[in-house]
Amino acid sequence: MQRLGPEEELANLKSIYGADNLPEIYGILRDAFSTLQNRSHVLLSLVTICLTITGFSGPSIAASGMYPKAAIIVGLCLVLSARGGLLVGAFDLQWITRYGEGSSDKTLIRILERRNRRTRTYRMATLLLVLGLSSYVASVVIYMVGL
Predict the structure, then answer these.
(1) Using DSSP, how many helices (H) and how many strands (E) does the chain show?
(2) How confident is the prediction along the chain (147 residues), in pLDDT tens digits per residue?
(3) CA quadruple 31, 34, 38, 43: dihedral positive or negative?
């Protein structure tokens, strides 16, 4: 399946919903932003859980040696980077009705571009969170093994 650029995606949406059915197309885009917001909220909840758990067990793990300390520090840095990406990227609140480029096509293309940027930010935050959680788990494993 081929990935479409914003212009091609708009043409595809128009072929599906009709070229004059702008309310439906705006609704699709509104739903996409809502989906991004909901998924970003889930990631932020995972970040919060990780930070809370680290607050309880982190000092004990870090005190057990250099390797678990390094792993937990790296993990926390990655998790906090994911949180930062979510807050300044995926959670950046801007209304789609705020965009106006002179024609509805140009406006919709700009909204699609914005959605794509926010999706990339969400994916990057997800990757950082997974790497951070992996490092955190590594610190727990090293702590439990006693290295």
Answers:
(1) 4, 0
(2) 788 899 999 999 999 998 888 889 989 998 998 999 899 999 999 999 988 988 888 888 888 889 999 999 999 999 999 999 998 887 776 776 776 767 888 889 998 999 999 999 999 999 999 999 999 999 989 988 876
(3) positive
Enter the tokens of residue 123. 């994916």
Provide CB contacts within 8 A for 65, sequence distance 6+.
Answer: 142, 143, 147
Residue ranges of domains in the chain: 6-145
Give the C-alpha separation, 28 to 127, whole Å. Answer: 26
How far apart, in whole angstroms, are the C-alpha atoms of residue 146 and residue 12?
A: 57
What's the whole-model pTM score?
0.85
DSSP-derived letter for residue 5 is P
Q: Which one-letter amino acid corresponds to residue 93?
A: L
Please state, in angstroms and rounded to a whole number, the distance separating the CA atoms of residues 132 and 49.
13
Give Cα separations from 19 to 12, 14, 22, 74 (angstroms): 10, 4, 7, 50
The sign of the torsion formed by the CA atoms of 116, 118, 124, 127 equals negative
